[in-house]
Amino acid sequence: MDQFDCVVVGGGMVGAASALTLAELGLTVAVIEKHQPKAFEPSQPFDLRVSAISLASQHLLEQTQAWQQIADGRICPYKRLGVWEQEQAYTEFSSQEISQPYLGHIIENRLIQLSLWQQIAKHSNITLKCPESLISLEQSTNAVSLTLSAEKISAKLLVAADGANSQVRQLAGIGVTGWEYGQDAMLINVETEASQQDITWQQFQPTGPVAMLPMVGNYASLVWYHQKAEIARLAKLSNQQLQEEISQHFPTKLGNVRVIDKGAFPLTRRHANQYQQGRILLLGDAAHTINPLAGQGVNLGFKDVKALQTVIAKAIGEGKQWHDPDVLASYEKMRRPDNLMMMTTMDSFYAAFSNQNPVLKAIRNIGLSVVNKVPTLKAKALAYACGV
Fold it and tell me: Mind giving me the DSSP string for 178-235?
């Protein structure tokens, strides 16, 4: 049976980054993943799954040496963020307010994963097992034993980065609390009339927000929140019919667009009842899924990665057994409060803008106007969201 210091189940963005940051500490790491990401060619159409990568997440990707390849690919920086319900309450955040060249980048998830995998391939401390699947696991006092489809391995630490429906979380018997928001979201890749833009925006409508994420060249990713039945109807339309719906429901500032691709997903909140069970730790979506309103999902996952590396590095530096469950408990103490605060903030924001009570509607528009006129408040909120 092969033995490793750490086994990471899930080779997505968070899992791959976890493997690299742990290997940097001199630990031997195995990554278990069912599917290899599709190779990239510049001529390929844009993927539907994209992320708004914050400055803090960029710094982590720079640390893993993956950022340069990402930056050489399809990557769109944005300098401004616009939010409004009524035009008179339009609020815009700018990178200049926090003395940064940009607020973040819109990047396809697969390209981030591919860049991280390229670094994994170079690292002698990491063994990538793909395609491979976890069948079962058993935890003892000193190790976690994993039965895979083709072999058995063991590790001092098991990192679950296998997504919202985490198999590791289920096998470990860790429960979750959560709910569905009663709405779905549609992702729509479009070719835009306008050239590449440096702003991402979101307008709150009675039926839910509509948003625009700029992409390289004359392209953008649109996000349309609506009731489940309406999203199901929109998903069945032809691209031409969907274009007509977009022109009727999105703000005129979007301009004319041509629909290229579309997909839909439910809005769900989940939070693991605990992030740790002995030598098993949950990271990223395995631990928490958040309302995508502010695009903080993967950024929270990357914060988990950085926190785990910090905990283990500190223990090694102090001569402690880094894999001792009491040491590993510091990870949850670092991350649960921050994750919970961000999840609650997004839920409160979502609930406030979903309520069409005229009094509350007036209050929230006044609130946006006030924020727009108080530079210090804007800067603090922006700096926190960007992780600087």
Answer: EEEEEEEEEEEEEEESS---SEEEEEEETTEEEEEEEETTTEEEEEEEEEHHHHHHHH
